[in-house]
Design a protein that fits this description.
Length: about 675
Amino acid sequence: QTKLNSKIKDPYPDWKPGAPVPYAALCTTFSLIEMTTKRLIIMEHCALFLRQVMRLTPDDLLPTVLLMINKLAPDYAGIELGIGESLIMKAIGESTGRSLQVIKADQKDIGDLGLVALKSRSTQPTMFKPKPLTVRGVHQGLMGIATVTGNGAQGRKVDGIKKLLSASDAHNTGKVDITKDKGGPSEAKYIIRFLEGKLRLGLAEKTVLVSLAQAVVCHEADKRGKLPSTSDMEKGESILKTVYSELPSYDVIIPAMLSHGILNLRDQCKLQPGVPLKPMLAKPTKAITEVLDRFEGQTFTCEYKYDGERAQIHYVAKDAPQELSQAAPGANKEAAKGVASIFSRNSEDLSKKYPDILAKLHTWVKEDTMSFVLDCETVAWDTVEKTVLPFQQLMTRKKKDVKVEDVKVKVCVFAFDLLYLNGQPVVESSLRERRELLQQAFTPVEGEFSFATSMDGQELDDIQVFLDESVKASCEGLMVKMLDGKESGYEPSKRSRNWLKIKKDYLSGVGDSLDLVVLGAYYGRGKRTSVYGAFLLACYNPNSDSYETVCNIGTGFSEQVLEELHASLSAITIDRPKPFYSHSSGNQHQPDVWFEPQYVWEVKTADLTLSPRYKAGCKEGVDPAGGKGISLRFPRFIKIRDDKKPDEATSSRQVAEMYRKQESVTKNKGPSVDDDF
Ligand code: ATP
C-alpha cells in the first residue's frame, strides 16, 4: 500500500491523458510481474498499472483487465480463439520471413513459442517503423481472430496474428537476448502466449480482481485529494469480490464502477438473469460420521446427489413487468416463452443442447413467477420405467443444434436451489427459505421437472437409510447442506464446508474421484498397438498456473474408448512438454507423446502415495524431506469431463488435502510403493 499511495509518474512517453493505453506499457508491467513470485509484489504492479489506466485512459480499463486475465469476453459469450500450436508457428514464420522448419527447430530448442516469436522478431530487419500497438487495438485484433468463421477462417486467423506480430515491439529495434529476464517486456511474446491461452505470469484472476479494487479505491481517493483509508481498501475489495461472484462479467461491472464508484457497486450490479454465476461446490467426505461432526449443533438437510449434468437455468417471462425483468445483455432470446438460457457448470451456453427443456420450461413455472435463476441437474430419464438413467445415457445426447423432434434421450430436471426470483437475488437467504420459494414458484411434472428428493432427519441411522435409498434410485450418493442461518446462504464459485458430498463408491477410499488433465500418452503394446495404451495425467496448480503430474493410467478403458481417445488426442499432440508442465525429468519416465492441455478425465483411485516420479503437491509441502510428489495408486478411468476446462481440474491443494486426510497417512503408515500401470 505504501507504493500504491505514493504519487505516480507518467509511465510511458506516448501515453498521454485520453490516449489509448500503449500495449508496450502493459507488457512492461507483465514483465515486472513475471520477474517475481511474490504475490504482494505482483498485486502491487498490477494495481499500479490499473490505477494509471484509470487516471489517464479510463475507457481502456475494460480491455486492459481482459488482457490481464487472458480473456476476450465473459465465458458465457462463448468466444474462443480456437488456435493450435501449428497455426501459431505458421503465423510466426510468415510474419518474420522464417521457414516453418526453422520455427519448429527453435520451438524444439527453446520450448516457449512466445520466446520463439521474440527471437524471430528480433532477427528480422525492420524496413519501416510500424505504428505502436495499443491495448484496445490488441484486444480488437484478438477478438477479430477469435470471431472469424466460414470459408478460409484458418487462413484469416493466421493473417490476424501476422498483423499483430508485424506491429509488435515497434520500439525495439535492436537484438533481444531471449535468455535474459525471461525475454523482457516483449509484445510479441505476450501476444503469442495470449493466443496459447496462458500468459504464465503467475497472475491469477483473483489477484487481478483484488488489484482492480485497490486501484479503484486509490483512484477515487486521488480524485478527492486524499489518501485511501485502510477500511475503504478492505470495503472495496470485499464489495468487488461479492459483486463479481454474483455477476461475473467485467463488461457489466467496469462501466458501472467507473460511473458510480466502487462503494456503490452493490446497488448497481446484482445477480441478473442472463449472466451465469459460477456454481457453489461441495467438499468431499468419507463417512457419515464426518458429516455429523461437521454439522454438530446445526440443522442440515440431505438431498439425493443426481448423476447428470449441472445446469443453471435463467428465465424472464415475456410479460414480466420492467422491474422483474432486468435480463442482462447477451441473454438467449429463443425460448418458447420469454427469455431463457441454460448454462453449464463452467458458464457455457447449453441452450442449443437442451431445446426440449427450453420448450417446456414455462409449463413448470407458476403464473406469478416472472423471473428466476435455478440451480439444477439434468438427468437422463427412462420414460417407460419412470426412473433416472445412468450418466452414460446423457452423454449420448448431441451437444449442439439439437432439434426437439430428434431428441431420443429424454431428460428430467432436478432442481435443488433457487438463486434469483422475481427481480430479486435470494442467494443471501437461508437454504430453508430458498427451498420454500423454489417449491412455491414451480409445479413438478413427472419425468420433466422435479425437486431434488430431500430428508431433514439428523440421525446417523436416518442418513444411512436415505443414502441406501439414493443408491437404489440410481443416484451417486448424497449432498448434505447447512439448512438454516447465515452459513446456509448460496456461496457462488466457492467449494464450501456448508455443502458436503458423500459418494457411495468412496466411503472407504479417498472420499472422491479426481478430475485430471491428460498431458501425454504411451504407445500401446500387444492388443493396443494401434492406439495409446496408457496416459500421463496431472492436476492443476492455480498458484503457479502449472500442471503437476500425478499418475500414469491404463485401466478402465474399453477398446472403443481407446480408439476414440486416440483419434481426439492425436489431433493435439505437441513436440515437447509445455514449460508449465511439471514432471520428473528422468528419461525413463517420459511419455512417448505430449498433448496440449485440453481434456479433463474423471479418475478413481484406491489411495494416494508419495512418489519421486510425479510432482503433484510438491509445492504444498507434502514431502518436506525430499522432492516427492503425490501419486494415485491403481487409478481407473471413469469418464471424460466435457464440462470442465483444464484449469478447473482437481487442484494440487485438493490432492494434498486428500492425501493428508487419508487414514493411512494420518496413522503415519503411509504406503511408499511407486505406482505403475
Ligand atoms: P467437484 O468435483 O469439483 O465438486 P463435480 O461437478 O465433479 O465438481 P461432484 O463431485 O460430482 O462435483 O459433486 C457436485 C455436483 O453434484 C454438482 O456440481 C451437481 O452437478 C451435482 N448434484 C447432483 N445433485 C445435487 C444436489 N442435490 N445438490 C447439489 N449438487 C448436486
